[in-house]
């Protein structure tokens, strides 16, 4: 018998009428012959209200008590939903996270799922019940209630779909699918028919709040097809599957993280191990750092900038100050009024000039870029918060995200493709206890023969990145990683990029011309570097990956010249003479997480 997991978000169960409507959707699937598990969120804005109550009583509410409090929201909805179904004449049973045996680690407010006891759920289903599951919660080894992080009901739903071997996971919400960007921010955003796991994972972690990013980790790991659709109509929505919508479009979506903060650690001694000290302290607090850029400093010191969600700034500064004292850095500066604008697309890995198109669009709109990082399928730019909305619009326009590409996949095609995906049961059969939300790495790779160019003293003005990459692009050089750093001291920034070693001389010539044209302070470069990539699923949100990498590199006495992180890869640029040895060490260190 087929099994469907449905999930209804807060707005979709906000009042009695909506709960009844959701109950009818569950019953309809049941009467069509499916076994049905329905995951529900807290009603309406109840979780927000509970958070407010907590802060009225305590400025720093203990995380354990926060979870006891927040889990009550979902407990209310499961009971009401079961009652609604019963009143319509069908059998239903409500279950909390603990009752379903959703075991998590003990990171309160951000717990990760370790295992789920499917027997109880399956027993209720086999007895003819619709099972109503509380989203977003679990229990740790000591019987403490835990929650999975805001928006975590999506993760409960996809995790249940994975372990129960469901045919599909339907996410019912207040939009009718996944859009090219948040339709509340840009009315011209377009609903997509299909988006790939990789793209959705990046988009969700870069601000597309329609799905909890960790739910996509599960979906990708276990091949769960997700159908995001409206609670308020019966139209089909968007599918999140392995394929992307269009092979020809470089970008599938844009996202904004409005409340981001930039932190710069000033005067970091340029010796192996300092990054480890800084980032491990932040990672221990489960804060995902993004846009890491190290500026070449003077006198053996460098400035290290990165971004964190604004809500995590206070805790990050606490960690940073501890690290500064320990490693003898000179201080810290930060900017709370910045936003991150990102574009994502599987297609950009094959196309050149995508970054340049984005920088030009921002330049034409007169928007200054403070920091840039690129990785294989995303480009992020840090901009002033009061320009963020404009920035999102111009970027969306520039990649023509409002129109459908000619080679776009449509629904019938996806259905067809789906029937060819691996048998879910066989995937589930390979699951072992405690492995559900663990880090999964797919590869560690060394890309030798790379070169780096760094432009120093680049004036901090709108358009400069576009100008630079216009000239680099014209020379036909293939640019891989780009990072533009923040330099607090003299109002300039530095821009580094990597190219194949064979293009080094050519790139240096272009850099020298740029240096004259824009009156830069100087250029710096190296043609003896290599890129080391660790690939996997959910790497940025598994905050320990960075720490482990930094530790391994520090132990090997290797200095990191450039770094970029995404949910799919962490790349570091290092000296080539130590690259092979470092790769070996990384393989050894990550052996357990590397899938055979
Ligand atoms: P739920 O309570 O059902 O989980 P959420 O509020 O978490 O609903 O997610 C739905 C919201 O996500 C939409 O109302 C929309 O404003 C926002 N959103 C952000 N990015 C996107 C996107 N790319 N596509 C669709 N919706 C998005
Ligand atoms: N109720 C929780 C929240 O508001 C979980 C969820 O809705 O997904 O964050
Ligand atoms: Mg949500």
TrEMBL record:
GO terms for molecular function: aspartate kinase activity; ATP binding. GO terms for biological process: homoserine biosynthetic process; lysine biosynthetic process via diaminopimelate; threonine biosynthetic process. Keywords: Amino-acid biosynthesis, ATP-binding, Kinase, Lysine biosynthesis, Nucleotide-binding, Repeat, Transferase. One of its GO terms (cellular component) is cytosol. Transmembrane segments: none annotated. Gene3D superfamilies: Acetylglutamate kinase-like, VC0802-like. Residues 263-340, 343-432, 453-534 form the ACT domain. Pathway: Amino-acid biosynthesis; L-threonine biosynthesis; L-threonine from L-aspartate: step 1/5; Amino-acid biosynthesis; L-methionine biosynthesis via de novo pathway; L-homoserine from L-aspartate: step 1/3; Amino-acid biosynthesis; L-lysine biosynthesis via DAP pathway; (S)-tetrahydrodipicolinate from L-aspartate: step 1/4. It comes from the Bacteria. It is an enzyme of class 2 (transferase). It catalyses: L-aspartate + ATP = 4-phospho-L-aspartate + ADP. Its EC number is 2.7.2.4. The keyword Flavoprotein does not apply. SUPFAM superfamilies: ACT-like, Carbamate kinase-like. Belongs to the aspartokinase family. This is aspartate kinase. It comes from Rosistilla ulvae. The gene is lysC.
